[in-house]
Specification:
This protein has two helices and seven strands; from the N terminus they run E-E-H-E-E-E-E-E-H. By secondary structure, the chain is an alpha+beta fold. The protein has a domain of about 80 residues. The strands form two sheets. It has a five-stranded antiparallel β-sheet, covered by helices on one side. A two-stranded antiparallel sheet has the order 1-2. Helix 1 crosses helix 2.
């Protein structure tokens, strides 16, 4: 099958008559995270967009759902590798997804080793 034969990608509808793509969905999530005091970067390409939040926490979207590693399974058991299983959030609820990503962000920050500079000074 060549590119001319592929069916067109159907856009995601968010609310009545509102259509967004992966980049717009990622930017909405980024704004919600910023409202929670969490800085992030958006990267895009190949019909996907990524929201880079923290080391080990990247949220990606294909314009239908947000996905990230949760660190836990469906029974809330800690994953052995600390990466866990995919967590999901709908693109039409960036605020709710941001809350769940923020919880994972806080968890990862607690587990991170303390930052110490070459002079021995550690930021608080």
């Amino acid at each position: 099958m060549n590119m001319e034969e592929l069916p067109p990608v159907q856009p995601n509808h968010v609310g009545p008559d509102v259509v967004i793509n992966a980049v717009e969905a990622a930017e909405r999530l980024q704004r919600e995270l910023a409202g929670l005091g969490i800085a992030s970067d958006v990267h895009h390409g190949h019909c996907l967009a990524l929201v880079s939040v923290w080391s080990g926490l990247v949220v990606w979207t294909d314009e239908r759902v947000f996905r990230w590693k949760s660190g836990r399974d469906a029974l809330r058991r800690e994953a052995r590798d600390r990466l866990g299983w995919d967590a999901y959030g709908p693109v039409d609820d960036p605020a709710g997804t941001a809350q769940r990503v923020a919880a994972r962000y806080a968890e990862l920050r607690r587990m991170a080793p303390p930052l110490v500079t070459p002079t021995g000074w550690a930021p608080q």
